[in-house]
Design a protein that fits this description.
Elements: H1 2-28, H2 34-39, H3 45-55, H4 61-73, H5 87-122, H6 127-140, H7 144-158, H8 175-209, H9 212-219, H10 224-261, H11 267-277, H12 280-308, H13 310-316
Length: 317
């Protein structure tokens, strides 16, 4: 087990290094001159060149990359090319919206998918089970931005239960208002991601119901529901854990769109603005942090799956 954990951590480090190189290279091949964008259309070539030198854009790419990585290893993501502010400080500030939004969305997705997925498997031969299965497929196919607009029209505009947009200026100094403003965006992401997760849970539950140990438990007097929950739930839990890594990536992508739709001051909205402003230092820092979160969560999911499933430990041994 220790060897497996160390291997996964080594792969995580390699993955982060490769991701950083790809992010840096991709942003450098984009069309346009960053210095020209910052200087403005009325600037002279001499002014643009002077700005390029002050930003370090005239140095070799390998030198720029080495300096960026060196700063990251010391906990410094650099400074914004436009404002000169600390990128790490801004990321921490914006993460106070994005991380709670993602966590709340994940909780909603799990609350929806786990009981309904198991119920759909238990009722798979009934009209109700077929209806839940078809509904989950239909909802999973809906783009998150469409789902968000629909929920805004229904719950914010028509019913008036939630604010349609915005986040309190005081932030989490007013926790009630802050949480209330995130409920509808989180519900938007949670419903769509929950529908996707429901399909995996339903398939895992159906597979578990066909296993000999579940059928044996039912033959000894347990109901199908009791037998599945008592003996088949570990297999369902393993599926949930395995799919969560993909779901987390979907949550982060959904957060980028939803923060724009609901006017939330999170990392996703900041990323879109910085791409438009050609602030390369901020964009590469933001993308690297989001990529790192996905890789770290994927590593934790792999380790958790190994802990939950004894068969993986036995095969490794």
């Amino acid at each position: 087990m220790i060897r497996f954990v160390l291997t996964r951590l080594l792969l995580l480090v390699v993955g982060l290094f490769v991701a950083s190189a790809l992010i840096f290279a991709t942003l450098r091949v984009l069309p346009g001159d960053v210095a020209q964008v910052i200087a403005g259309t009325d600037s002279t070539p001499e002014q643009v060149e002077a700005l390029r030198q002050s930003l370090g854009l005239d140095r070799p790419l390998l030198v720029q990359y080495a300096e960026w990585i060196g700063g990251i290893l010391h906990g410094d993501l650099g400074q914004s090319m436009l404002t000169g502010s600390s990128i790490a400080h801004e990321l921490i500030e914006k993460a106070q919206v994005t991380i709670p939004l993602s966590v709340l969305s994940l909780v909603i997705a799990l609350v929806i998918s786990i009981p309904l997925g198991i119920l759909s498997a238990l009722k798979h031969r009934t009209i109700a089970g077929s209806a839940m299965s078809m509904a989950s497929q239909a909802i999973a196919a809906v783009p998150v931005v469409w789902a968000g607009m629909l929920l805004v029209v229904v719950f914010a505009v028509t019913l008036g239960w939630f604010p349609p947009q915005g986040f309190p200026r005081a932030g989490w100094d007013e926790p009630g208002r802050a949480l209330y403003s995130l409920l509808l965006p989180a519900l938007t992401i949670g419903v769509v991601e929950g529908a996707v997760l429901l399909r995996f849970i339903r398939s895992a539950a159906l597979e578990a119901m066909g296993q000999d140990y579940v059928r044996t438990a039912a033959a000894k007097g347990l109901t199908r529901t009791r037998a599945l929950i008592t003996h088949g739930l570990p297999n369902v839990a393993l599926t949930v854990v395995s799919v969560l890594a993909l779901q987390i990536a979907g949550l982060l992508v959904g957060a980028v769109i939803i923060e724009q739709l609901f006017n939330l001051p999170g990392i996703g909205r900041m990323l879109v603005a910085d791409v438009g402003n050609r602030d390369l230092m901020k964009v590469q820092g933001e993308v690297l942090v989001m990529t790192g979160l996905v890789l770290v969560i994927g590593t934790l999911v792999d380790i958790a799956a190994r802990v939950i499933d004894p068969r993986q430990r036995e095969s490794a041994a």
